[in-house]
């Protein structure tokens, strides 16, 4: 019989019990449930709400249950309603009446809220470590390619020359913002709901400061209604995870393009690609395609949480049981994607020559040609028009700005002299972009120094 069955005259329908049960997915929180119960039992004993002896017996019993689950000696009962009731029932089975004292001054509502915060706090730390590892891998790769020239794109059209290091560091900045958002969420959610009871606290003289401190929280939650009904932190984390996935998806899209024969900027290691069942020549970037697909799944988890909460009156409602599968799915998929993406990135081969060859096409030095004239006194708009006209001539004649004869330049304006070829060389174009945050080796060196300092790499 369920531990809450006193009000009821008959057993719950088997189908309803299965529908109502959450142990299939919340069992993963067993360690955090026991952690919270140990803190609660400690406080009950210290406050004299139960005897010190009973408190110590409860703590020892909970520790034994934890050890038995970890060692595989105790399996979860699939018929249990949830992980909280399973552990309490097991404790009572082992300790008798003493086990029944654990739930004094506590509700499942504040217990669930506590367990989820404890669990997600740990998961945020793990995801943060993975994102930081990804940033460090990108920095190490960038350091090898501060002078590797490739085209920068807008509208997926070749635009201006950059370096591969510059391109990679753009993603580092995205992931650094992700780290900041994870830190903000972890700080905001680090308040303890334990002691909120079902919704209105308790008549016992409990010490919420003590349980908060024992569990590593900054403080107890200030309002008991909010304590049991708040899921902002789940939504906020799901939003952060969605943004991480969006960044991974953008990066994946570029890797998919770069792997194609049309670009061929990189070569994935064989361990991180798959073949075709019918086309023997194929080497498919399936990992990055899956990340693209899983991004939509994590977005869906965010929408599930937002929709679940949008119409709920205070305080707890059973709808909120749906929070766990959604946030667990988002957490699991982000970790899985990061754990796969990092070694794929570390083992891929960069084809510098192909990047350089692509940069030589597409007239990505046209702006530099215009700037050449501006530096000789011509207004930019006039210089822009001349540069565009020269590009049109090159296209018509099958030439590039580098191979266009000097006479053709000088027909446009005598300001062009032999030094124009040096001014429009790709290396000059890149090295000349010395503005802060730009692609020149000097500017990239400053970016690397700042990023490495943030990541503690120096």
Write a concise synopsis of the structure shown:
The protein has 458 residues and is mostly helical. Helix content is 61%, strand content 5%.
Descriptive keywords:
single chain, mainly alpha, two-stranded antiparallel sheet, two-stranded parallel sheet, 19 helices, 6 strands, 61% helix, elongated
Write the layout of secondary structure elements.
Layout lengths: L13 H7 L2 H4 L3 H17 L5 H20 L11 H13 L12 H36 L5 E6 L2 E7 H25 L2 E2 L15 H7 L4 E2 L3 H6 L2 H28 L6 E2 L18 H24 L12 H26 L1 E2 L1 H9 L5 H9 L5 H18 L8 H7 L7 H4 L2 H6 L9 H15 L3
Parallel strand pairs: 3-4
Antiparallel strand pairs: 1-2, 5-6
Helix pairs in contact: 3-4, 3-6, 3-8, 4-5, 6-7, 6-12, 6-19, 7-10, 7-19, 10-11, 10-12, 11-12, 14-15
Summarize the helix and strand pattern as letters: HHHHHHEEHEHEHHEHHEHHHHHHH
Average pLDDT over all residues: 94
Number of DSSP helices? 19
pLDDT < 50 runs, ≥5 residues: none
Helix and strand content put the structural class at mainly alpha
Q: Gyration radius, to the nearest Å? A: 31 Å
State the helical fraction. 55-70%
Shape field: elongated
Strands side by side in the biggest sheet: 1-2
Strand count: 6
What distance lies between the first and last C-alpha atoms, to the nearest angstrom? 60 Å
As a percent range, the share of strand residues is under 5%
Described by strand count, sense and barrel closure, the largest sheet is: 2 strands, antiparallel
């Amino acid at each position: 019989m369920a531990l809450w069955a006193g009000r009821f005259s008959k057993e719950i329908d088997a189908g309803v019990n299965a529908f109502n049960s959450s142990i299939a997915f919340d069992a993963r929180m067993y360690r955090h449930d026991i952690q919270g119960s140990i803190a609660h039992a400690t406080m009950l004993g210290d406050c004299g709400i139960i005897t010190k002896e009973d408190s110590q017996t409860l703590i020892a019993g909970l520790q034994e249950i934890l050890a038995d689950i970890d060692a595989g000696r105790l399996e979860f009962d699939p018929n249990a309603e949830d992980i909280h009731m399973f552990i309490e029932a097991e404790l009572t089975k082992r300790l008798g009446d003493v086990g029944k004292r654990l739930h004094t001054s506590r509700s499942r509502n504040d217990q669930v809220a506590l367990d989820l915060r404890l669990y997600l706090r740990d998961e945020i730390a793990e995801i943060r470590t993975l994102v930081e590892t990804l940033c460090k891998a990108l920095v190490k790769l960038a350091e090898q390619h501060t002078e590797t020239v490739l085209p920068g794109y807008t509208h997926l059209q070749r635009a201006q020359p950059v370096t591969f290091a510059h391109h990679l560091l753009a993603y580092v900045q995205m992931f650094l913002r992700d780290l900041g958002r994870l830190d903000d969420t972890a700080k905001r959610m680090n308040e303890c709901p334990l002691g909120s009871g079902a919704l209105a606290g308790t008549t016992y003289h409990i010490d919420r400061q003590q349980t908060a401190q024992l569990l590593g929280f900054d403080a107890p939650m200030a309002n008991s209604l909010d304590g049991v009904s708040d899921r902002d932190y789940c939504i906020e984390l799901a939003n952060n995870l969605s943004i991480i996935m969006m960044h991974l998806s953008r990066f994946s899209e570029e890797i998919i393009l770069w792997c194609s024969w049309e670009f061929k900027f990189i070569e994935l290691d064989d361990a991180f690609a798959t073949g075709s069942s019918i086309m023997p020549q194929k080497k498919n970037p399936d990992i990055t395609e899956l990340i693209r697909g899983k991004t939509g799944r994590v977005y869906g988890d965010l929408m599930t949480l937002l929709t679940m909460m949008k119409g709920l009156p205070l305080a707890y409602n059973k709808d909120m049981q749906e929070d766990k599968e959604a946030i667990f799915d988002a957490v699991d998929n982000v970790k899985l994607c990061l754990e796969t993406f990092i070694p794929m990135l570390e083992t891929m081969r960069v084809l510098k020559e192909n990047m350089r060859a692509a940069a030589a096409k597409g007239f990505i030095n046209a702006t530099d040609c215009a700037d050449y004239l501006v530096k000789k006194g011509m207004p930019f708009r006039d210089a822009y028009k001349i540069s565009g006209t020269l590009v049109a001539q090159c296209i018509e004649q099958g030439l590039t700005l580098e191979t266009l004869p000097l006479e053709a330049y000088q027909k446009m304006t005598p300001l062009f002299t032999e030094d124009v070829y040096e001014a429009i060389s790709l290396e000059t174009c890149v090295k000349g972009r010395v503005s802060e945050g730009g692609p020149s080796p000097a500017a990239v060196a400053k970016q690397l120094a700042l990023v490495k300092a943030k990541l503690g790499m120096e």
